[in-house]
From TrEMBL:
Lineage top rank: taxon: Bacteria
Organism: Cellulomonas fulva
Classification via PROSITE patterns: ABC_TRANSPORTER_1, ABC_TRANSPORTER_2
A Pfam family the protein falls into: ABC_tran
Alphabetized UniProt keyword annotations: Amino-acid transport, ATP-binding, Nucleotide-binding, Transport
Name of the protein this chain belongs to: ABC transporter ATP-binding protein
Chain ranges of the ABC transporter domain: 20-251
InterPro entries named in the record: AAA+_ATPase (IPR003593), ABC_transporter-like_ATP-bd (IPR003439), ABC_transporter-like_CS (IPR017871), BCAA_Transport_ATP-bd_LivF (IPR052156), P-loop_NTPase (IPR027417)
GO molecular function, one term: ATP binding
Keyword Cell inner membrane: no
Amino acid sequence: MTQTTGPDVHRGAPGGEPLLAATGLYAGYLPGVDILNGCDLVLHPGELVGIIGPNGAGKSTLLKALFGLVPIRQGTVTLGGEEITNERADKLVRRGVGFVPQTNNVFPSLSIEENLQMGIFQDAKRFTERFEFVTDIFPALGERRRQRAGSLSGGERQMVAMARALMMDPSVLLLDEPSAGLSPVRQDEAFLRTRKINKAGVSIVIVEQNARRCLQICDRAYVLDQGRNAYSGPGRELMHDPKVIQLYLGTLATDVEQAAEPGA
Ligand SMILES: Nc1ncnc2c1ncn2[C@@H]1O[C@H](COP(=O)(O)OP(=O)(O)OP(=O)(O)O)[C@@H](O)[C@H]1O
């Protein structure tokens, strides 16, 4: 049973102190209108945690609230045990939180290299070291460092945006729908890229519309509905949970899974 009730909200999470923890968050854009209605999330060191749910559930709002872009009216956020609720985004970047927005995530008139410089302007002396790290993960960015970001494809821009967020050596990366607007093949690449960053030691919270693919790559996931936790658990477990399939994944998820299983 994966329904989240009370202490079961972080089902499947490893023990120990979480790296990032949000507790009982109420947040919204307009006075008196809450989009988040008491949702919780924890991210443990090394984890890749997904947030899925229907359109308008508040997935992106949760990410923005964690990054100080939407005011939190009630509840707390901690990073490494220290409270960071409503801390400004630039301070969060200094404290090791990176954020990759869904759209407008590169400076189109700047080159790839200049975009990466913008990512580390708060600690410019580390540019060379960090440039080497990110181009090791994404060699294409090193090879094309002089190319204007505006001339890149959607998938390549997404890669630049992720790399820019990695320049400050974050311990936590918040990714807002990295597969949005990409063709199926490019979507797969975006998920593989996410996994690669995670394997390089960065803990990740990823919001995704492509719920099935998200659950496939995540250690754990939360299903949000109307700004509240509806279900949670290990990604692959949620994928096969009849309630989650019926309410949030549709029949396609089971069809595709069965087709992928030998002998099915
Ligand atoms: N800047 C804004 N000002 C006012 N309301 C907003 C703003 N951004 C989002 N909302 C509202 O907040 C609600 C949740 O939006 P949010 O983008 O967080 O949902 P989501 O779960 O990410 O949805 P989707 O999967 O469609 O991207 C929606 O009703 C939306 O209209």
